Amino acid sequence: MTYAETAMSKPANRTVTLQRPALAPSGGRLWRPSYGAPLASVAVAVVVLIAWQYLPPMLGVPKYIIPRVSDLYLEMIRLWNQENLLKHFMSTASMSIVGFVLGGLLGAVFGYALGLLPTWEKVLSPYILALQIAPKVAFAPLFILWFGYNAWPKLIVTILVVFFPILVNVLQAMRIMDRDLVNLARAYNMSRTKIFFKIMLPFSMPNLLAGLRIGATLAVIGLTVGELVGGEIGLGYLISFGQGQANTAMVFDAIALLTVIGIAMYWAVTAIESRVLHYLPKAAGAPSTKP
């Protein structure tokens, strides 16, 4: 019997077992998916800093246009020793947090109030839209004329900048509320207070926290504008002072510290969001909200 006849004589419905090839142990991998993105980010930062350090001198760019990274480091030390940098940093950080908290509270309160009172929402919506469209930072000179050169103008600008994103997000959540669920709660004789805290507040929480994430970054912008226009202390004041002195390194250092404040506030909000909204399912492959 030939090989072909032998193969044809075997049963056609035989089961073929496929074995998965052995994988290398995970401990021997040099590049894990969980560490890939952070390592890539660090690598990009290192490349940018190296290029920043050596490319401007090679291209003949003067230091007062683009200072080197080493110049920024030396200027940072000088600001710490001679210009009381910690005082300016703490002033900007504390005022940003205060403005963010007050703006967030006011935005949430007004958003829930207008959501519970649809008639007043229709009456006030044109004025809210007008205030939202108007550039809030343009009010800074007026606040300086009204309140003087103190902390109030920049604090009010920060509150206004943070107020509207949170108001709009909360109001949008109240508009798309599941009315059938609310009517069911009323059928079970639940009070308005219980309906708000048991149904409306949890339903609007994702929108509220999304607005807070936006407001955390806008708070630093609003405060910096207030310090640029009429501040006498803070990182925004250092930017204005450095511009007048043609000290580009001081301006870059102040911008870097403002970025650090904004990132820290954003991470704080995302950490709170991950704790509060832990019950929500995450999409497959979605990045973690934890800093």
Structure, described:
The protein has 291 residues and is mainly α. It has one domain: MetI-like fold (Orthogonal Bundle). It is built from eleven helices and no strands. Helix 8 packs across helix 9. The radius of gyration is 29 Å and the shape is globular.
Topology record:
Blueprint: H1 3-9, H2 33-59, H3 69-82, H4 85-116, H5 118-133, H6 140-147, H7 151-175, H8 179-187, H9 192-230, H10 235-244, H11 248-276
Helix pairs in contact: 3-11, 4-7, 4-9, 4-10, 4-11, 6-7, 7-9, 8-9, 9-10, 9-11, 10-11
Class by SSE composition: mainly alpha
Proportion in β-strands: under 5%
Distance between the termini: 71 Å
Order of helices and strands: HHHHHHHHHHH
How many domains make up the 3D coordinates?
A: 1
CATH architecture verdict: Orthogonal Bundle
What is the name of the CATH class?
Mainly Alpha
Mean pLDDT: 83
Query: Stretches where pLDDT falls below 50 for ≥5 residues?
Result: 1-18, 20-31
Quick structural gist:
This protein is mainly alpha-helical and 291 residues long. The protein has helices at 3-9, 33-59, 69-82, 85-116, 118-133, 140-147, 151-175, 179-187, 192-230, 235-244, 248-276.
